[in-house]
């Protein structure tokens, strides 16, 4: 059983099903903010859903599973909006 608290900083799996997740970089966000175009480390592009991470910005990395971004992977703290 998973403990009630855990560190998401090094998470590389889906928090829902424990299957592998992939880290992608957001290249563009749709006008509605609900979808984004992302690229992986090999240059493959895919459209993903961003509804669970409305704070995501172009250029940031997101952890994606099943075409859905689960969390934003922050390399450094964000500046205030």
Q: What spatial form do the alpha-carbon principal axes imply?
A: globular
Helix content: under 10%
Radius of gyration: 13 Å
Largest sheet, strands/sense/barrel:
5 strands, antiparallel
Q: Which spans have pLDDT < 50 for at least 5 consecutive residues?
A: 1-7
Kindly, what is the distance between the CA atoms of the first and last residues, rounded to a whole number of angstroms? Answer: 38 Å
Q: In CATH, what is the class?
A: Mainly Beta
Helix and strand pattern: EEEEE
CATH topology heading: SH3 type barrels
Number of contiguous helices: 0
Total strands: 5
As a percent range, the share of strand residues is 35-45%
**Widest sheet, order of strands:** 3-2-1-4-5
SS class: mainly beta
Description:
By secondary structure, this protein is an all-beta fold. It has strands at residues 22-29, 35-39, 45-49, 61-65, 68-73. It has a single domain (1-81), classed as SH3 type barrels. A 5-stranded antiparallel β-sheet has the order 3-2-1-4-5, with no helix packed on it. The radius of gyration is 13 Å and the shape is globular.
């Amino acid at each position: 059983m998973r403990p009630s608290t855990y560190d998401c900083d090094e998470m590389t799996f889906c928090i829902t099903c424990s299957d592998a997740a992939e880290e992608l970089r957001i290249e563009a966000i749709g006008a509605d903010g609900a979808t984004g175009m992302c690229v992986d480390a090999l240059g493959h592009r895919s459209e993903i859903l961003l509804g669970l991470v409305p704070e995501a910005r172009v250029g940031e990395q997101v952890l994606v599973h099943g075409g859905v971004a689960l969390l934003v992977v922050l390399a450094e703290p964000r500046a205030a909006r």
